[in-house]
Amino acid sequence: MNQFFDQVITFLTTPPGSLIYYLLLAISITGSLQGTIAILRSGAFPDARRAVIGLSILLVLQIIPFMLDLFTRLGFIDPLIVIPPLDRAFTLLGMIWIAWLWIFPKPASKPDATAVILSLLIILLLGISISFWSQNPSSAGFNHSFLDILWQNFSLVFITLALLILSILRPSGYGYGLWALMLAWVGHLVYLLMPTSTGYFSGVIRLSQITLYPVLLALPQRFSNSLTTSPPTIDSNLEGKPFQERRLFSTDPKTFNSLFNLAAESETNRVGPNITRGIAHSLLADLCFLILIDADKNLNIACGYDLIRDEVLNGKTIAKDSIPLLSNAILEGRPLRLLTSNESADIEGLGQITGLSNPGNAMSIPIESSSHGGVIGAILLLSPYSNRVWSSDDQSYLSNISNSIVSIMENSQPLATISQERDATLQQVSDLQDNIMGLKTSIQTEQELAGKNQLIPENMAALAAALDEAKKEITKLQTENEALHNASVEKGYSEKSDQIEQQFRMTLEELAHLQNELSDANFRIFELQQLPGSISFANNQVEMIASISQELRQPMSSIVGYTGLLLDESVGILGALQHKFLERVIVATERIGKLVDDLIRITSIETGRMLIDPEIVDLYIIIDNAVAYTSMQLREKNITLRLDIPESSPKIQIDREALQQILIHLLQNAGAATRMEGTVMLRVKIQEDLNKEYLLIQVMDSGGGISSEDIPKVFTRLYRANNVLIKGLGDTGVGLSISKTLTEAQSGRIWVETSLGVGSTISVLLPIESVKPGEEDEIVFSAPNSFGTLQ
Question: Could you read off the pLDDT of 294-327 as tens digits, one per residue?
Fold first, then answer.
């Protein structure tokens, strides 16, 4: 047995055996290549193109050393310098592309690029090896030399990684790939473990190559497995029974009605849905789509029909990158059939377009129009429910139907043109009628003016007399004005006129200020009159509300805790719908918690228990907490939050909790008022005026603005409790009322500015004291009682 093995090894490494070795490998590759090309030509498996490319590369890798071996016999190349390193390099190149064929059957850019880069690196190493070996040849041969050991280690490492990746991914037919790679791995390992031998070629590795390359003949089965179907079964009970003829109909009633509706359709917008309905019933397709190509070569689903649900599907735009094979076939006017087992990117793209996890097998037939000079669209059939495999007969049948579809679509266009012209004519008639009515009105007006013109001469005399009298009065007033001016100059009163005018303006400004205060007082009186009883609650009632509010926290905490326990699935697996319901429970509970917090603050305000406790705080932390607290609300409406805050994080002395609540309520109001995908702006500045520092907070929304009549009611809690909501305002509870109370408790001001059609800006101005580094322990807070004038 050992003698026979030695003879085989020797035969594979000698010149006649080397040629036979390359021929055997080429025959195995050619057989697999022929089967794969036949599958590719059938059109059912576009991914077979990758297999054809990989097998072609392997065939070239065997032809090149075969030709070089012939050249060495003719004396053109030194066989002992070039051929041994080339044999090791091409063996490793072959393993790379064999692994690529079995591991990545579907298009993948990164693995493809990796295979190309590795091939280029091996070619580079081959050049280095030939150069090194030509300068340092060994009389003992290339076997087990330094370069040979290096190539064998490279091969073992790569094959090991390929086996690991193939075992993890497990694509279709991966078992054959594992067998082939395992044979190669064993061959290289046995060669390294063998005693050092002389010679230039490894017979053990060549023997393993001869055994693994025929495994490539199983590569076409990866595609043909999905087409195998079980033979039809014959009911044994039917044997021996007489055959009864059954009446057959070429068209079922639904298809017949669909075709009649399509023939009788006169409205252009309903031609497409009737086309897809008729095709779906004719071919029993689960889904049928009509795809059109626009002027920019973009694909658009015009309409569709769901046979199972018996409903028309709306159109949408298709991203060509998601279905590359299908897009190219439609634009080039080629029919295409795709199977789910192809593992093609187009199947995943069709799933995303239709919203189905498995869109099923697909068939596309182009629609060509001679009048438009090419392809205008395509018919796409899917079978997500029945998983029907489309055959060549289905393809031929649909191709014949597509010719009739072109005629129907082209015939509907003149009808649409006539309908548009009719509508335009009716619109012109309506405009002419309006013009006639306008002319009649103008004629009547002119007739009335003509009657009045008769009275003009009678009134001219009276107007002339009145004009003369007015001129005399003006002359008299001018004379008196000059006399008064001369008298004032003589008495020296000209210098005091500017002071009197300035005092008069100040008096007017003070009067306007008093009128504003009077208006605010009247509005407060109006609020007090609207109350059913006393303004303040009784102390026992307020304490009872506060107690109930505190007791609500414990059951809410239990609800949140148990809901979180269920979501963690520690007590059982939940479905997607159950997850959604529990998440809604948590959101609703958090909302109740916010309302309870507002209720507690209201009771504190009503009883006068609210205390202002200033402390040194980091402004960035306050802003970050407020934004984090309201981020969920903004994210639900896809609102963009823009910040305009100081570059450095200033430390100020202020009531932390009060400032935090003011920011939260202002952001919540802006988020509720802003429309979907709108913008909210938060601006925070520190200003200084008259040696006093102020914190200016402005929150701008894009909610359309507030009417001038509703501005005095923005910060009024009792108004929103008894009346309709204010348009353009997001706050529906007591958030802005609490913000106003907290602001005024710190001797601050709050006001709103609005722009109808754009949005509103709520501003808060608070007195603060900045804290410099090292002065945290020296500052004593004192809230100012009034504001200076900000320039």
Answer: 888 888 898 999 988 888 888 888 888 888 888 8
What's the pLDDT tens digit per position in 237-280? 444 444 444 433 345 555 545 555 555 555 666 778 888 888 88
Residue with tokens 């101005």: 765
657 lies in the same domain as 753: yes
What does the pLDDT average to over 669-693? 89
* CA distance linking residue 626 with residue 451, whole number of Å: 74
Domain's final residue, options 567, 583, 605: 605
Tell me, yes or no, whether 58 and 205 share the same domain.
yes
Give me the number of domains the chain comprises.
Answer: 4
- The Cα–Cα gap between 677 and 638 comes to 5
Q: Model pTM?
A: 0.41
How far, in Å, CA of 405 to CA of 597, rounded? 66
Q: Is residue 784 scored above 50 in pLDDT?
A: no
* 595 & 620 share domain: no
First and final CA of the chain: distance in angstroms? 106
Whether 568 and 706 share a structural domain: no
- Mean pLDDT confidence for 104-133: 90
Do both 340 and 203 map to the same domain? no
Strand partners, 761: 700, 753
Distance in angstroms (rounded) separating the CA atoms of residues 40 and 48: 5
* Domain, as residue range, for 415: 253-419
Q: Annotate 601-655 with DSSP letters as a single string.
A: HHHHHHHT-----EEEEEHHHHHHHHHHHHHHHHHHTTPEEEEE--SS--EEEEE
Which candidate, 597, 594, 598, 654, places its Cα nearest to that of 623? 654
Tokens 């689960």, located at residue? 286
Residue 167 resides in a domain: yes
Query: Which 3 state secondary structure label does DSSP give 161?
Result: helix
Question: Which of 192, 91, 183, 85 has its CA nearest to residue 129?
Answer: 85
Task: Transcribe 515-546 into DSSP letters.
Answer: HHHHHHHHHHHHHHHHSSS-SSPPHHHHHHHH
Q: Summarize the confidence of residues 424-443 as an average pLDDT.
A: 65
- Choose among 111, 71, 116: nearest CA to 93: 116
Residues 554 and 412 in one domain: no
Spatial distance between the Cα atoms of 570 and 565, rounded to a whole number of angstroms:
7
Same domain, residue pair 28 and 51:
yes
The 10s digit of each residue's pLDDT in 696-747 is 999 999 989 998 888 888 887 654 445 667 888 887 767 888 888 889 888 8
CATH of the domain at 661: 3.30.565.10
Q: Name the domain boundary from 360, 388, 419.
A: 419
Instruction: State the DSSP H helix or E strand holding residue 596, giving kind and residue range, or none if neither.
Output: helix 576-607
